[in-house]
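If you are new to this repository, start here. Below is one unmodified record pulled from the training split, so you can see the exact layout before writing a loader.
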Amino acid sequence: MRAPSSDVPVELEDVSVLAGPVALLDGITMRIAAGAPTVLIGPNGAGKTTLLRIDIGLMPPSRGRVTWAGREHAPPDRRAIVFQRPAMLRRSAAANIRYALAAAAAPRATRSERIADLLALVGLSGLERRPARRLSGGEQQRLALARALAREPDLLLLDEPTASLDPAATKAIEDIVRAVAARGVKVVMSTHDLGQARRMGGDVALLHRGRLVEHKPAADFFAAPATEEAKRFIAGELLV
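And here is the target side for that same chain:
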């Protein structure tokens, strides 16, 4: 297990993000604590990706306050994000990770060993020399996870990491997420898959129209949703 996370908990206090007259996030107050993954769910346009960008510090809120372990101005050295369609560099799988290690200022003497460890973690051992852009979609997503983990993050943010993947590739990603979480990394991931939210979530946050509708332990959320929006979403009804 790792030492306690230096950027966790993440706390949002009345956070709004405005794009002209449109509120992408509207008065979000929530605490993202250490422990099992936090899963963000909600319909398209609910604000999940925007919330992930706020959590890592890629964009400032229009209103409100974000802190990482109590610090408002904290460099994102130990935070990493993987977007739904990660870009692959025009080089081998190993070289993609080497680039990430160099960007994270990892000691040169340890980089080859770290590359091997990260490829093993994500199940890509033996594909070191394969051009990254010739990997399958699931393999590219696993390589993107390895690059993110090269930063040795305390906080790992995943934007629908299994979208468009087949069941086998989805299971491979979920297994990696479990392994990473077991090492003490706080994972926050968005998904449209309620089954995945049940399997992966320590806690679940439902967003709708930029608002935080409900946030509670996953078992409680699915067993006893407190809001009409949550009941409808779990039932498969469209929230508009």
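Two things worth knowing about this chain: Helices lie at 48-56, 93-103, 108-121, 137-149, 167-182, 194-200, 218-223, 228-234. The first strand starts at residue 10 and ends at 19.
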